[in-house]
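Appendix B. Chain record.
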Amino acid sequence: MSDLPERSARRTAKLASLPLSAAGRAASGVGRRLSGQSAQEVSESNRERAAAQLFEVLGTLKGGAMKLGQALSVFEAALPDDIAAPYRDALVKLQEEAPPMPGATVRRVLDEQLGTRWRERFQRFDEQPTAAASIGQVHRGTWHDGREVAVKIQYPGAGPALMADLNQLSRFARLYGMVTPGLDIKPLISEIRERVIDELDYRLEADAQRAFATAFAGDPDFAVPAVVASAPKVVISEWLDGTPLRRIISSGSTAERDRAGELLATLTFAGPARAGYLHADPHPGNYRLLDDGRLGVLDFGAVKSLPDGLPEFIGYCIRLVIERRADEALVALRENGFIQPQISVDAREIVDYLGPILEPLTAPRFRFTRDWLKAEAARLTNPRGPAMRFGRQLNLPPEYLMIHRVFLGSVGVLAQLGAEADYGRIVREWLPGFAPPS
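Structure tokens predicted for this chain:
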């Protein structure tokens, strides 16, 4: 634990400062209302201050706090402008930036994982990292055969830090409600906790990356770097140049945005069909747009094994809703555990609830925008609206949780990009059950 930039006690103190400060803001808000400020003015002020502190703390910690920050960052496009605008840059920075490990720690990890003569396997190794994330950082080097490589090294103590952070963060779910009303953070934290063990074993990540690299070898649209070597806490891959997707989001041309969005959407559905895995970490730090127009895909620590592809039920149910076959959709949802037997619902509510979300699949071409996503988020989370009431009656089976989050996260990135494409064509090609039987 001492190898991490923040010692356990200091990390806990930073996280604990979040609810304490929220309580202080609530108390000061009472005084400001007594002094004549409206409840709305006080609420907006508290939300802004809560967001500022939340993003600051998440951005300076690794482990679970950093991972949660990355997961939340893909939903930035759905935040209200008064929250999103001041902190957009802070959220984006969470996707690829964090304080680095000391050089002595890097060398010790490589000694343990690759042997004390590991330098003989490199022509060159840069001790200054090029990127850092939640549980590891990346160094650039030249392999002994001349290939440029990326060396991903796990932070010592990353596992205990992850679990400690996640246990702390789950207690502070109410604070996130101040920043993103309607977003239930506890299931997201629970899911992150459940896949932590797999992510900590870089050999599993290397296996998933090899599967993607094989499935997309020579593909004109995608580039997946080959794995050169791997160990439990180190994975070495071929280096991949390109423009980070966050830069495309901030300053890319319309053509670049559309190209990146179309390929990201394709990967979401084609990955399970071709590689047998769902790439389950759709935040912009994991993608590059190459000069030749391909989408470079990085970081395979978070994947879901789907050897038979995405469940056919998903495509079938989507088609039923689009075709307004409400009664059949209700039967399908019940049979697959999305509506429990004891729950009574009007089948027409299913179409009303899901129909607007599926608009991108029904238009000849659709452009995702922040305004569209914010409107949908407001519709689905309005406590007085019919969508919220119906949504509370739905059940999400555990086997669909990660798929659901990946779909939502991908939509968030597409809205950040403002990307336009024929998304219906992509889904017809790659999602089982969506295309009508021939």
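Further analysis of this model is presented in Appendix C.
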